Amino acid sequence: MTSIEVLAEALLSDANEKGKKIIQDAKNEVAKTIREQRKKGRDDAKERVISIKRKAKDESEFLNLSKLASAEINAQWLILEKKHAMIGNVLNQVKEELRMLVKAENYIKMLENLIIEGCSILNTPKLELMLNSKDSALSLNLGTLVKRIGEKTSKNIKLTKSPINIETIGGVKIQSKDGKMVLDNTIDGFLEYNNDEIRFKISQILFE
Amino acid sequence: MSDNLRILKKTQEKAKRIIDSALIKAEKIKEGLLQKSMEAFEEAYHTEIAQAEKFAKNILKSSSEGIELEIDQLLMSAKQLAIKIENQAIINEEEAVKHIINIVFHRSEKI
Fold first, then answer.
1. Which member of A14, A75, A83 has the closest CB to residue B74?
2. Is A37's CB within 8 Å of B38's CB?
3. DSSP track, A124-158
4. Is some CB atom of chain A closer than 8 A to the CB atom of B54?
5. pLDDT tens, residue by residue, B35-50
6. Is A26 in contact with B28 (CB distance < 8 Å)?
7. Residue B42 in contact with partner chain A when CB distance is under 8 A
8. 3-class SS string, B8-30
9. In this predicted model, what pLDDT tens digit does every residue of A11-41 receive, in sequence order?
10. Number of other CB atoms surrounding residue A134 within 10 Å
11. Structural contact between residues B60 and A59, judged by C-beta atoms closer than 8 angstroms
12. Any chain A CB within 8 A of the CB of B45?
């Protein structure tokens, strides 16, 4: 090869190298820019990512607390309902036993005492006794009752039996002759009036 | 012009064409870089957000599963306690009935 040919070859080789470098530099620049933009995208998203995760965590905690609170209330209701049913069961048994007891011999004495108590409280000259159908057929000595009421109140009252029967386990309703005053001294009335205390007492015994 | 000079001149022109061609290719490579940059940014941004949202969804799901288990255990315990209370109460039932009967039946005896 002549020297000029060597020179020419060197020139072309140099140009090729430069050309390759120009193309490679362009590729590198594009790759670098895209990498930077990707990083910028990730960085810009950071704050929102933190916010999304925090919100999910808070929402999760709130939902869980809410569900747990509901479940705890349900659990307590479950136990309360069981206790309520058991107390109700006892009350039913009480009523059943009372229905048997009012057929016993000593019931008349109880009934008389309830009549005397009630009439003493009403303290009205003319009173009427309202009984259930079974008790209406009992041989109550109204005269003796009036005497005992008189001894207690120092007052003379007139006592009659109402022809109308009431629905009750036992006991008596007493009303003034004009119907304006009524006293409920029935067993059912007692149970109803003292319902809260009775249920509380049952609860104390059952669940001690 | 001597032959050498002519050869040299032609070589220089060829070299220049090589460089010019490379420059044109480089420009083509850089073409649309702005658009590509924006796309890269958007893609990276939305990928991060999507991953965060997926993470959030998983947190809610696994947390919910965990609490459901706890709730089931809580209700199971309550049911067992209710049975225990019932069994204990049955033993005391008779005493409770007697006590109330006493209150009702014998209250009038104070008169």
1. A75
2. yes
3. -SEEEEE--HHHHTS---HHHHHHHHHHHHS---E
4. no
5. 999 999 999 999 999 9
6. no
7. yes
8. HHHHHHHHHHHHHHHHHHHHHHH
9. 999 999 999 999 999 999 999 999 999 999 9
10. 14
11. yes
12. yes
Q: Write out chain B residues lying below 8 Å of A101, CB-based.
A: 101, 105
| Mean pLDDT of the B5-33 span | 94
Would the pLDDT of B110 be above 50? no
Choose among A185, A179, A170, A164: nearest CA to A121: A185
* Residue keyed to tokens 């032609």: B10
Report the pLDDT averaged over residues A72-90: 96
Among the partner residues B29, B85, B97, nearest to A30 by beta-carbon distance: B29
Is the whole model's pTM more than 0.90, yes or no?
Answer: no
**Which residue is closest to A116 within chain B, CA to CA?**
B111
CA-closest candidate to residue A205, choices B103, B81, B92: B92
Question: Are A174 and A182 in contact, with CB atoms under 8 Å apart?
Answer: yes
